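not sure who needs this but someone in the group chat was asking about histidine kinase from Streptomyces castrisilvae so here u go. i didnt clean anything up, its just raw.
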Amino acid sequence: MTRTEYPWLLPSAMADPELPGDRGRSRRTVRDWAVDLAAFLCAAGIGMATLATIDADPTTPDVFVLIDSLVGAAACCALWFRRRWPVGLAAALVLLSTVEPVAAGALLVALFSVAVHRPFRPVALVGAGALAVTPLQPYLRPDPNSSFVESTVIGVLLILLVLSWGMAVRSRRRLVVSLRERARRAESEAALRAEQAQRLAREDIAREMHDVLAHRLTLLSVHAGALEFRPDAPPPEVARAAGVIRDSAHEALQDLREIIGVLRSPRDGETDGNRPQPTLATLDALIAESRLAGMAVSLDNRIADPAAVPAATGRTVYRIAQEALTNARKHAPGAEVTVGVTGGPGQGVTVEVRNPAPAEPFTRVPGSGQGLIGLTERATLAGGRLDHGPGPDGGFGVRAWLPWAS
């Protein structure tokens, strides 16, 4: 894992990541137009109120009122560029507001934009500059209706209020972006875990199928070798050996079809390549083992001859029952588990494992669901399907169907 692959690990991104809207877009959205229009009207309203106060003062020359009107209008119109150059516009309005009180509304909007769209350092610099020049405006252009101290205090409070509001908005946006990024990472990690579980399930199936296929080919080689060294064997014995060779070759081809496309990649530390493979005939031993562990398990196996079930299908049935019993032992201790197996040649094999809700409260064991993902992958690769989920009584059920050629 590198920082290039995960940009959120970069120190600058951790300190203050760039948020959507920090950089000016070439085309404004409908929301951008609405916000910009509202900001313009707010600044124009404050400017017009200030201009009315200046015009009401009889000592103010008419030319000053005209200049104030033009400069205030220009300051409000400049706000349409606040998305592209927020810091530069705010700095220019800070200087302009020292001699032009009509630009105060545009200055407040510009300071709010800087606080929302820029990190703390430029906000602190621009804010400090605005606070430093706040006393100059009432000194150069005093308000006849208020004192110098009162005008200065009001100006400082307004600047601090606007900057605090803007930083609060930015902090909330950062939180939303962080939560969205965290949710995306969680989804990506869940998808990777599911993909890994499927890959591991395929590897397990490939190893098992490799062992079974090797066993079949070994039998085929042994009987073919016997025919080679006993060409004078009686016809019945030759026919019997030929039949074994034919059956072994047919079953080997079936196993080969299942293993094609599955990558065999043994994990380090595993040396159980020669372990005996479970089949449907060993399902009774699995049930007995679960009962010895204290589980209440009832088995309804309606297949008269379990040995006649193809080895790959029987092994998949065994693994499904094994994983379902393990899940029932973890998530529904004390509940009676029912295992049912039905089917026949041509109609497939159906295995169903169900358990009711636990009768007594217990400490739930957290589960990742990887086992069920592996079972679904195993059943799909075998040409079947698997469904699982909670029942109406609060219990849980696993049902799978696997093909059985006639």
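also The longest helix spans residues 148-229. if thats useful
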